[in-house]
Amino acid sequence: MPGETGELGTMLDVAPTPAEMAGSPRLDQAEGDSLAAVIRGGLSKDRTYFYNGLNMRLFAVREGKWKLHVATYSQLGLKYFEDPMPLLFDVDADPGETTNASKHHPDIVVRLKELINSRQMTG
Higher model confidence: residue 111 or residue 2? Predict the structure, then answer.
């Protein structure tokens, strides 16, 4: 079963994955999604990933190849990005997040900001 995949996962997926693989019922308090299908060689469902930082402040959202940063934070005081927020990156083409695409894709910026606003309202 060892292998490699381009599928994303988060630490929130750690509990639901082995639970599903062991045939246990879903944990009510688990926020993540099981990656059992990926481990078995399939694909995961399309997911939206939210990135939280200090005090659970929402910093970014990723959907598909697009990642939108609305804030940055460095425990070391480093400034990660020079451009003004928000910053949009095509992480498939630019995994190092070096080229801000927000001016070229304002529709995607609006859609991802709406996801962030919706997430902040629902907690």
Answer: 111
Looking at the structure, tell me whether residues 31 and 59 fall in a common domain: no
Q: How far apart are the first and last CA of the chain?
A: 37
Within 10 Å of residue 121's Cβ, how many Cβ atoms? 7
Contacts of 74 (CB under 8 A, 6+ apart): 80
- 17 to 41, 106, 112, 123: CA distances (angstroms): 14, 36, 27, 23
84 and 97, same domain (yes or no): yes
Side-by-side strand order, sheet with 48-52: 48-52, 58-63, 66-69, 87-90
**Residues in the chain, overall count:** 123
pLDDT reported for residue 15: 77
Radius of gyration of the chain (CA): 16
Residues 6+ apart with CB under 8 A from 99: 89, 90
What is the extent of the structural domain holding 77? 48-122
Residues 23 and 70 in one domain: no
What is the SS3 assignment for 11? Answer: helix
- Count of domains observed in the chain: 2
